[in-house]
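Notebook, bench 3.
Goal today: get a predicted structure for BTB domain-containing protein from Polyporus arcularius HHB13444 so we can plan the truncation constructs. The sequence was checked against the plasmid map this morning, with no discrepancies at the termini. Length recorded as 337 residues. Pasting the sequence as submitted so the record is complete.
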Amino acid sequence: MSTTSPDSQPRKRARTASRDEDQCCDPREDEEFWLHDGTVVLLAGQTKFRVYLGVLTEHSSVFVEMMSLPQPVDFQGVQYSCPVIRLHDNPDDLRRVFRLLMPRKTSNLGCDSAPTFETVSAYIRIAHKYQMDALLSQWLEYLKKHFTHRFDDWISNKNRVPDGFEPIHAVGVVNLARLTGCNSILPTALAVCTTLGRNIITGFTRADGTREQLSMADLARCFYARGLLIQANATALTLTLSAESTFDACTNDSGVCSEKVRSFLQEGISMYEVTFLAPEGLVPAWKTYEATLARDYGVCCCCLETMQKGYYEAQRVAWWRLPEYTGVEVTPTDWGR
């Protein structure tokens, strides 16, 4: 009897054609990667690629093993002067990887500085499946730069997801982390998921029809972490604004900034939405509050600077506990201040 891990990814793909139909219909030659001097034919769905076997075996130990086994003939009456291998992968995913390994003049390389989630996901899934270790390491590092384990790197990121991603894609990032065992990106990715509202349940659908959803175990982690993060955010702001030492270097008249900040807290409860003082997700950047305190309440620069330092220290406390909040086991080297 088979069992399913509670952390496994519930990815479902719509069935568009039977396997028998795939077998009897002659696939189309790919416009981009049907290379007449190619040395292997790869059949994927209704697409066939002819590429360089040497490039594949250089990067993938799985292709090396494939070539050591007898290869079945997929099509009667069709003969190639090179091996034929049937793959059960989406042609678009393979094409994206081929663009990295065998770039063509006609390839639509897109914007390398801001690849989409679809592109990064294809790189990681294909690289993991075919043991393309260098490619896998490269694109996991890309995710680690954004879903980082270092506090200073996180607060310096302009957005909570990479350029080219949408917040909902954090669901897919969690699934990629589970697939590859890359635990260090899980705490921040799960924290972003806690801000998705009802969309955290439905997830999203990739271009190939595969639905990306969190496992039940990861959904439970997000629901639990959401409340803890809201509490941590409210605590960080309250401790920062109520610390008496904040106003020791005040350049306004004695006690003025202290009164202004107290007014901000009191009025904020009634004037602003609760999410302003106790927001979801990881503790927001100090600039979220700094502009209001300076513009609307006239708090001096010295007090603002002192509060910023105190706020960052309060943020670090929440950051250090993020693996605990999200229920992720990480080693000391996987998580840092």
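The domain at 16-126 is CATH 3.30.710 (Potassium Channel Kv1.1; Chain A). The chain is about 50% helix and 10% strand.
Flagging this for group meeting.
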